[in-house]
Design goal:
214 residues, mainly alpha, globular
C-alpha cells in the first residue's frame, strides 16, 4: 500500500508542477524525459560498475546512485540541446493550449512516476516494503510497466549489438529462446529484475551496516 501512495504522490506533484509550463514546454519535457529515462535505464549498470571500482563503500546504494546520476546528466544535456534548437515558445489557441498542457503534464507525470518507481527498486529498503513476496508483491504497476517498456525497446527500435564497445563489455546474460536471433542486448531477458532486487533487500536486512567494505 505504501509504494502505491508514493507513486500517487509523485504523479500528483509532477503533474501539478509541470501544468504551469504550458503545452510546448511540456511536449519538449516529455521527449527529453523519455530519452533520459531510457538512457539511464540502459547504462546505469556500467556506470555503477565504474563508481564501485572507485569507491567500494555503500555497495547497496551504487545502482540507485548510478541510475539517477545517469538520468540527471542525460536530462540536463538533452534539455540544453532542445532549448538551443527551440529558443522560441510556440503559442496556441487557448482551448488547444489548455487541453494540450493538461494532457502532456499528465503524460510527463506518468512517465516520471514509472521511472522513479523503477529506480526505487534499487534503493536499500526493507524486504517487506512491497509486501509479502508469496503473494507476488515484489513491485507496483508503474515499475512493472517501465520494466516491460524498456525490455521491449531493447528488443526492438532501441536495441544494441552484443559486441563489446566503448561503454559496454560483451553481452554475457543468458539469452531467452525468443531472443537468440536478435543479436541484441535485451534488458532483463527472463524478467527476473524484481526478484533480484527483492533478494538484494533481504541481503541488506542481514547486514548491520550498508558499509560492507572500505
Amino acid at each position: 500500500m505504501f509504494p502505491i501512495l508514493i507513486a500517487c504522490l509523485i504523479f500528483i506533484v509532477v503533474a501539478g508542477a509541470t501544468w504551469w509550463f504550458g503545452l510546448w514546454s511540456n511536449l519538449i519535457t516529455l521527449i527529453n524525459l523519455f530519452l533520459a529515462s531510457l538512457i539511464a535505464s540502459s547504462i546505469y549498470q556500467p556506470v555503477a560498475n565504474l563508481i564501485f571500482s572507485k569507491q567500494k563503500s555503500f555497495v547497496y546504494l551504487v545502482d540507485f546512485i548510478a541510475v539517477w546520476l545517469s538520468f540527471v546528466i542525460a536530462f540536463i544535456v538533452l534539455r540544453g540541446l532542445t532549448d538551443l534548437l527551440s529558443s522560441y515558445r510556440l503559442k496556441f489557441d487557448p482551448i488547444v493550449e489548455m487541453s494540450g498542457r493538461t494532457i502532456f503534464s499528465l503524460w510527463v507525470a506518468g512517465v516520471f512516476t514509472c521511472f522513479a518507481m523503477f529506480t526505487l527498486q534499487m534503493a536499500p529498503l526493507s524486504p517487506d516494503f512491497y509486501g509479502d513476496r508469496s503473494n507476488g508483491h515484489t513491485g507496483t504497476i508503474p515499475d512493472r510497466a517501465w520494466l516491460a517498456f524498456v525490455q521491449s525497446r531493447s528488443r526492438g527500435a532501441l536495441s544494441a549489438g552484443q559486441d563489446e564497445n566503448f561503454l559496454f563489455s560483451a553481452y554475457e546474460l543468458k539469452e531467452h529462446e525468443d531472443d537468440k536471433d536478435l543479436n541484441a542486448r535485451v534488458f532483463d531477458p527472463f524478467a527476473g529484475f524484481l526478484i533480484q532486487q527483492h533478494m538484494m533487500r533481504i541481503s541488506i536486512s542481514l547486514n548491520r551496516s550498508l558499509r560492507v567494505s572500505m
